[in-house]
Amino acid sequence: DTAVSQTPKYLVTQMGNDKSIKCEQNLGHDTMYWYKQDSKKFLKIMFSYNNKELIINETVPNRFSPKSPDKAHLNLHINSLELGDSAVYFCASSPDRGFSGTEAFFGQGTRLTVV
Amino acid sequence: AQSVAQPEDQVNVAEGNPLTVKCTYSVSGNPYLFWYVQYPNRGLQFLLKYITGDNLVKGSYGFEAEFNKSQTSFHLKKPSALVSDSALYFCAVRGDRGSTLGRLYFGRGTQLTVWP
Predict the structure, then answer these.
(1) Is the pLDDT of residue B78 over 90?
(2) Paired sense of beta strands A31-37 and A19-25, if any
C-alpha cells in the first residue's frame, strides 16, 4: 500500500488555467505538508496542516490554496497558473508537528508543467 | 535561523569504495537532522535521522551518519558504495520551536554517482 499518494503524477496545462493536485495518506498521521521542488532541485515548504488546521503558510502567492477536508487528505488548488509555477510538488505527512523530531514521509511528487 | 549546507553538488566514487556526502547545519534549539534520498522521478525516501543519543546513526541500505556538534556537521557515509546508490541526497534540519516548528529545511542536494 502506498503511504502517501498524490494524483496526478504529471500535469501539463496552459497558462491561466486552474488546476488541483490531490494528496492522501493512509498512515494515520496528524500533519500534512506541501513542498515545492524547483528546476534546480531546491525543496521548500509551502503549507502545513495539522488535523485540518493550517499551521504553516509560507510566502506563497494567494493563487495557491490548500484544502484539507479531513486529516488524511490535503489538496492543493492553483488558480491562474503561470509559467513560473512549473515545478515538482511533493505532499508529505508526519505523525506530529515536529515536537519529537519525527520524520516526514513523502509522496511520489506531481510534475506540473505550465505551457 | 535554521539552515543546511551541502557543499558539494556532486560526489563521484567507484563501486566498492567508501563514500561521504557532507552536510553542515545551523539551528537555534535542538538539532533534529535527517537524510533523504531521491531517485530519478521518485519522491524522497527517508534514510536516517539524529534526534538525540549516539552520535553515529545507522539507517537504511547500509548508510550511516555521524553527528558532530562541535563542527555542526552531519555527514552521510557508507563503507562500500554500490552503483544502485546513485541518486540525489538531501540533508535536512527540522525546527523544534516557534515559527520553525515542523518545517524541514533542506540543503541543495548532492548528486551521488557510483561508477562500476
Answers:
(1) yes
(2) unpaired
A53-78 pLDDT per residue, tens: 888 888 889 999 999 999 999 999 99
**Rounded Cα gap, residues B91 and B86, in angstroms:** 16
Of A43, A98, A106, the CB nearest to B94: A98
CA–CA distance, B6 with B66 (Å, rounded to integer): 15
**Cell 496528524 belongs to which residue?**
A30
Contact A79, A51 (CB under 8 A): no
Q: What is the dihedral of CA B100, B44, A60, A27, to 10 degrees?
A: -70
Nearest residue to B3 (alpha-carbon basis) of B37, B28, B22, B21:
B28
How far B78 CA sits from the closest chain A CA (Å)?
Answer: 21
Which residues in B lie closer than 8 A to residue A45 (C-beta atoms)? 103-104
- Answer whether B46's CB lies under 8 Å from B33's CB: no
